[in-house]
Amino acid sequence: MRRLLCLSLLLLNFGLTHPSHGHDRARAPLRVPDLPGFLTLKCDFHTHTVFSDGKVWPDIRAEEAWREGLDAIAITDHIEHQPHKKDLPTAHNRSYQIARGHGEALQLLVIPGSEITRSMPPGHLNAIFLKDATRLDVPDWRDALAEARRQGAFIFWNHPGWRAQQPDGRARWYPEHDQLLAQDQLHGIEVVNERDYYPEAHAWCLEKNLTMLSNSDIHNPIGLDYDLHLGDRRPVTLVFARERSLDAIREALFARRTAVLAGHRLIGRDEHVRPIFERSLRILTPQVRVRGTGRAYVQIQNDSDIPYELRFRAEDPDLAFPGELRLPAGRVALLEVRGRAADRQGQRTVRLTCEVTNVLIRPDTPLTAHLEFQVTLVPQ
Amino acid sequence: MRRLLCLSLLLLNFGLTHPSHGHDRARAPLRVPDLPGFLTLKCDFHTHTVFSDGKVWPDIRAEEAWREGLDAIAITDHIEHQPHKKDLPTAHNRSYQIARGHGEALQLLVIPGSEITRSMPPGHLNAIFLKDATRLDVPDWRDALAEARRQGAFIFWNHPGWRAQQPDGRARWYPEHDQLLAQDQLHGIEVVNERDYYPEAHAWCLEKNLTMLSNSDIHNPIGLDYDLHLGDRRPVTLVFARERSLDAIREALFARRTAVLAGHRLIGRDEHVRPIFERSLRILTPQVRVRGTGRAYVQIQNDSDIPYELRFRAEDPDLAFPGELRLPAGRVALLEVRGRAADRQGQRTVRLTCEVTNVLIRPDTPLTAHLEFQVTLVPQ
Amino acid sequence: MRRLLCLSLLLLNFGLTHPSHGHDRARAPLRVPDLPGFLTLKCDFHTHTVFSDGKVWPDIRAEEAWREGLDAIAITDHIEHQPHKKDLPTAHNRSYQIARGHGEALQLLVIPGSEITRSMPPGHLNAIFLKDATRLDVPDWRDALAEARRQGAFIFWNHPGWRAQQPDGRARWYPEHDQLLAQDQLHGIEVVNERDYYPEAHAWCLEKNLTMLSNSDIHNPIGLDYDLHLGDRRPVTLVFARERSLDAIREALFARRTAVLAGHRLIGRDEHVRPIFERSLRILTPQVRVRGTGRAYVQIQNDSDIPYELRFRAEDPDLAFPGELRLPAGRVALLEVRGRAADRQGQRTVRLTCEVTNVLIRPDTPLTAHLEFQVTLVPQ
Amino acid sequence: MRRLLCLSLLLLNFGLTHPSHGHDRARAPLRVPDLPGFLTLKCDFHTHTVFSDGKVWPDIRAEEAWREGLDAIAITDHIEHQPHKKDLPTAHNRSYQIARGHGEALQLLVIPGSEITRSMPPGHLNAIFLKDATRLDVPDWRDALAEARRQGAFIFWNHPGWRAQQPDGRARWYPEHDQLLAQDQLHGIEVVNERDYYPEAHAWCLEKNLTMLSNSDIHNPIGLDYDLHLGDRRPVTLVFARERSLDAIREALFARRTAVLAGHRLIGRDEHVRPIFERSLRILTPQVRVRGTGRAYVQIQNDSDIPYELRFRAEDPDLAFPGELRLPAGRVALLEVRGRAADRQGQRTVRLTCEVTNVLIRPDTPLTAHLEFQVTLVPQ
What ipTM was assigned to the predicted interfaces of this complex? Predict the structure, then answer.
């Protein structure tokens, strides 16, 4: 019976508290479960600033990453590509130094790095955990990589299928990469760079036992490239670290304890992505009751920020399940269970096999997982 | 160096997993902390269906409430106002029966009720936890309320300042309401109905020891009245219940263990809203370090879906704080701490007093609370 | 130098004007260009109410459609399927009558219809522009369709690949449909129903010269099935009518002047979708200048609410174009033009061929169109 | 009857066209009507880059402004405040030069300027349309302003109530400002800077016949300070110019043909804001019919991106109107007209007076306007 829209009291009383007045400087946590014994840190190991061809002052990289819920970033300006140098003289360590200051204020970890920027082969490689980037500014890329390794750097190959260097968009492995591997100067590959996924790189990481990375390679202010307020976000490398520290990230990278979270796709080794999937979910109604050919709902809460897509392969004589189910991030979804016959009865444990189609353990191979719950069948 | 937007691989590989294809039937949990010893249940005790002047079939009320993260609703169709009855013959208990069926499938609690719909005084009153609503369909409202009470109902006064009955929008107390109180036929008042807040009703609940309620009084499909995807939501009564059951809700209502969550305003007794506020927050950086006149950030995570607005009253000889701070729902905010002098040193426990301006413990009286953290002062 | 966030004045002064206080009852126009000589009306010819198995009172269908920018809807409750009839006695014309009243208040056209709901063949068929739906409530579907035709109805086949009737999801044509065609009792087919596209139906409409339809078949309140505030919307049939009237819609339907707008896909005959595409766009910078191997931007404004996806097939000795371009709804996009050589000069008219991949003129055949602009080449 | 969610065909067929894949580089036009004889250009005359204390490379300022639908920006780095100069040597004209290059590519006008950054009085002043900013780098601010004026600059006072210079947040006029006025070295004032409105400055512009300005004073990447995807936007100065050119903007500024668009507030002289308001609206149903005490709706389309808030002062013996109405940007709103008596008849022209509460022609004085339409009264 309340059809009048009585705004006046509302405005007087609620006016000052509305969250859209102005704008908040705030961090949106990016929820991904930890693994047993490890923290899951959200990292971006490839970012640029005005100190090479990026467009922001370095402290902005820390500010952006903090707001997006990241734990760590590497600043990786190009050594060789210095288009701003007439205005801003080359100083290879400065962008890291500036970003680190803001990172400390925000308790965001900032890692010193550089992008060694050469034609293919070997293409572009990032060296992170550097001690002095200026010493990488040498004519021969072999010398640059050797120096990086001497400094203890973790080195990975960037965007191996980048169209400027691989016109068909497919990553290609060169003898030079074999040499780098042999000399312990190549430890990982970007399986995802920006919005590109390289299935070849994915396969190589598995074959050659390399670390998988997923980075933004951001040059612009992040808001120009990602619609952050609409759920779009930069790709991140998930690092499974013993603690929240630079040393722990470095140890995990060399130990290949990483996964890729890009768009809504999670990519990684089965041992890493399976517990993330399993720990993301809670079955809120572990026991449901189906009457005859009626239906019941199993409620599944996804506490992570990764939406999951399930495809079921169920052959059950008594119960019918949907072919697919989506589990949106932070939401409770309904898995519908229907009885196939009017006269069945008894209690059953259902262990439902599903492919998680947005979680890849190999190129074209989704994670296979199970959902388990009890069904009580009651005659109609 | 990645300036090309290489969409093709992305689309082929990520195309099937995007969450905006189609639409998900999902529940968005409404996060409000529990109180010590009590669950915080989110309830709407005033809803209509086609069985009076509402616009939806009753099962939709359960579906909507489940999706919005509610725990319980009452179906409270008008007894006297039956504009659809030529098409849909009056049947006072049917809307509850239909809604309950869908509520059971979704594990949402559905409470039987009716709106006794009279001119002022006494105006409109909801009786919930009824046994048989048809017995309230009597000429004299005194008989209807007596019957409701005989059935054990919890009875509350709806929208006491409704402009159709109180043209100035102010709630007015009549002798009839005193009589109802004396006869144990009035247990609570709607402090908020739809988008209207009645400060007079708020004061009466405190003076007369009545239960505070906040309900939607929804007639339309909810999506026509609330921009749910933009963070707008219906008002709810928070019920502090010993367990998730109808009996526990009823017990809590009679025991006045409720609060109002409407818009971004939380209204209730100090003993109820204070622990909600305190349990919503985590100080992520309980120890910060301020160098000279520099600044440090205390990071405060708000794990609830209630955004808080703080106003500080700080007089500290060594440290300066902002005048205001907003703590958006589900986010981490920064409380900036600045040193006032270059030469101070030592460790300090700061207990910062704030008014939580969107949490009211009386009309015009915000909750006063404290944030506590350590500051180490280091000379510049 | 403005680092302080001075909220106080802002709130006092801007507080009352913020558009997110409360909620607005408003219509969002759905912008689709008119065709030469015809208005483009946005219509949904398949909706349900509580008078069959729908979930809303009929006036809500008019309210929802008005808000979504539609021009006309048909109310098409099931004749045979009356699950609410114990509570709400069958009355086949009532839902139309109620909806029409609200439609008149909002100047939204409401068309009387019914869904003839039979097993396959012939499946479900909608008859709209009925005079008296009760006369369709007969045992034999042949009689029902003959009666509808006697009343002058426009008749179309609903969701021809509906999985409950076609388990593989593929539409299948039966001899019964040939008979209906022969008897002038089948004038169109739903190429899209809800979120399903039926390529077979699309092909049949072209082969057999039938009217293409795209309807929501909505049962729930619309907000439960479409995330309207996030850009999601119901499918609509675009009707190219001589004026905004029921008669004009009827005339256009029989004359097959329709197209399908579903999701972000526009489907129709070349003669209809080509002018929509062309009239949606304005080239804001029809003359650009390219210096040597530099680049220039052609700015293209899309004034419609249909986002277009272009794929270019350009072989130009002097100029390079992107492979793809998206033209978001209501936005200006940039078509990048690059010079291939440093020394070219002169003025050129470029007529760039593109496939509009989200506009289909046949199943799997996108619209081919052209963008025309001038380029002045200047040596580097 | 379509209860199954059949995703498979949808995904296969619609998968590639969804607009949320990836991210579009696009301009969102900011719709504000032109005035008779003048274009309404959306301008921001106060922006910073890394060349003073801003955080972005200058071309980003042009890119951001283009995307937000602006027509022109001024780059106004601080002369005296050069915190980055150890890394980036001072070069007062460079930020403009770099931004202009990108502006030309996007057809966005870029104006050279500087912020003369002094303590109060006179505080901070922007000089725009400079020829050589380096000549403003002199010890005495009087010399700097004289030099700016010699170069033909348009000069305005920034954030006159900035709390760092006016701790109570109120703008204060000093004798120095009188001197500047007398010497033709002060032509306008920022009535809005960032999110702050200065009512004193508003009043001064009217009293002293100065140009009103509204600027962002942006230092960060715009996306860090404004939630652009949620409808939040930077303040802009509306300039009523004879054509889209730098000269025309300069002429309009000196001629005081500007208004302020900030948040959802429009501020300006009656002669400027009245036609903006009037040209924003179209009454879609200029004739409505009211039967007895029934109601009718006048549909009002707001084609601008400015939401309007109306408060009505209607005293009509026959008709009742709402007290308030909001006209959301780009939407159609309903003005409800109700009959006061059952027996009235005849046709009436209604000229309804309203205050447009978010459009200010003086501090605390809203624009008064009229809505005109015909009502036909029909007896019940």
Answer: 0.93
